[in-house]
Amino acid sequence: MGSINQIAFGSGIAAVRVPMAKPSWAVVRAELPKAPDLFAERSVPRGGSSSSHRRDLVFVVNPKGANGRTGKEWKKLLPYLRSRLGADCNICESLTSGPSHAIDITREAIREGADAVIVVGGDGTLHEVVNGFFWAGKPVTNYDREATHSTALGLIPLGTGSDFARSFGWKNNPYEAIERIAKGQRSRIDVGVISGETDEPHYFINVADIHLSAKAGYHASKYKRFGNLCYIIGALKGFIGHHNQDLKIKVNEGEWEVYPQVTALCIGNAKYFGGGMKITPNADPQNGKFEVVILQDFKWYDFVLKLHKLYNGTHLSVNNVSSISVHSIEVEDISGSGSIYVQSDGEHLGFLPRKFCILPSTVEMIC
After folding, report:
1. Within 13 Å of residue 9, how many CA atoms lie on the same side as its CB?
2. Would you name the residues annotated as active-site residues?
3. Which of 133, 144, 244, 355 is the right S-S partner for 261, CB 3.0 to 4.6 Å?
């Protein structure tokens, strides 16, 4: 359990739980109004219920996201957030300080019994928070074994792409997102899990992809300062030295099949990636299945000629494009080169081989 640190706010003291080893999810800026102890105002023990119960909301913010725009938008949003939610919720701000910090923040928040962890940012921060819902291959749980509620996932989309939000029809409108959070309606969603070279599984909520698109995403991540233009730059750099590859694929623990000349393979829990490309148009994060879309023998000019179809989701009728619905899929590089890129939710994961499985209805999300 964390220790209790005390931070002065004007005339009052706010108790903030801080773990001994590293900064906590309960990071509160001194210039904010008095922040109540996250559990002090509950009139019943953790896990109980009461009409006066205040929801504990942990907002995970990447201040450097979207080339610094996320941090600036968050500062503007805070006064409205406090006025809209402050009467019924304990609001806790936590700013990430670097890669994987959001994972640690999320795990601590869940263990301490937070009502929800709210992502403020884009798909990268969302990806980390989703991974924070798990530890050593299992869901993270509340320290209080008698708790009757689980920690929900929430999202205020403010990122460069915000592709996952598109599957729900959500825009980069923080005020609409705050209304969703205020209502607190929850739905269970699926999460994908990836296993491969290491013993530690990796989780994703949106789209995982292999080969050209993953290579393009790897390069695009270096040009986020250019906004959505980064995806075009990434695609151009991805084509340099690209060769289609024969891949071995096993679906739903069946037999291995060879798919020749694969250009890209996309595993969709949701529909969009790459800044609005509707790559897996039939994917639904609540149906317990992936949609897998495979592009074979594509040349650079095929992308130019068919780009509009990829963006509006009508590419499944194009020659050399196939779609299958699966619960699990394993992919190997026949050549054994170890150079076929893999990414999930826009984050580079390494190279083939990998196995992807669906975890149905694993996380509650504020929708």
Report:
1. 18
2. 123
3. 244
